[in-house]
Design goal:
single chain; 7-stranded mixed beta sheet; alpha/beta; about 170 residues
Length: about 170
């Protein structure tokens, strides 16, 4: 199976997640083409599956990723799986209030749903489940993936390909 992994990044974390997806795909015996929307905003080459990733900024995916999805070639990608992945702020620790849970769901997790729903509105086969990996923001200029982020990413990529073969 051939996959294309397209991403935008702000602190570099979404790029690390995209690289982990591509690495896992290759480890599972598949081809993976990794691309940044900043380097190549055009539609990616033909493949069997497309992964599209974005950091969640202010409750949604980046404008570059939204434009990328809006410009995808429908003849090439309609009917093929499109998988969304995001990086987002860290989930509140226990005990979380209902307001904290609502805020995280709306702003952080909601960004992945927005990207998935945008792809679906364009007629693409965006999978229901999407990956979100938390980041810890040290200050306004630095953030890092949570320690379990890469393993979670690789497991997700493996499961997506395993289920898409069935």
């Amino acid at each position: 199976m051939k996959a294309v992994v397209v991403y935008d990044t702000y602190f570099g974390n979404t790029k690390r997640v995209a690289e982990a997806i591509a690495e896992q795909l290759k480890a599972d015996g598949h081809e993976a083409d990794l691309r940044s929307v900043r380097d190549d905003p055009s539609s990616p080459p033909q493949a069997d599956i497309l992964f599209v990733g974005s950091p969640i900024r202010f409750g949604g995916p980046t404008g570059r990723v939204k434009r990328f999805v809006k410009r995808l070639d429908k003849e090439v990608w309609t009917g093929k799986p499109l998988v969304v992945f995001t990086t987002t702020g860290e989930m509140p620790k226990e005990p979380a209030t209902e307001k904290q849970k609502y805020s995280f769901d709306k702003w952080a997790l909601g960004g992945g749903r927005k990207l998935r729903d945008l792809a679906r509105a364009r007629g693409f086969n965006a999978l229901e489940n999407y990956l979100w990996v938390e980041v810890v923001q040290a200050d306004s200029k630095t953030a890092t993936l949570v320690p379990s982020g890469i393993e979670k990413t690789k497991q997700f990529a493996h499961e997506v390909l395993t289920s898409s073969k069935q």
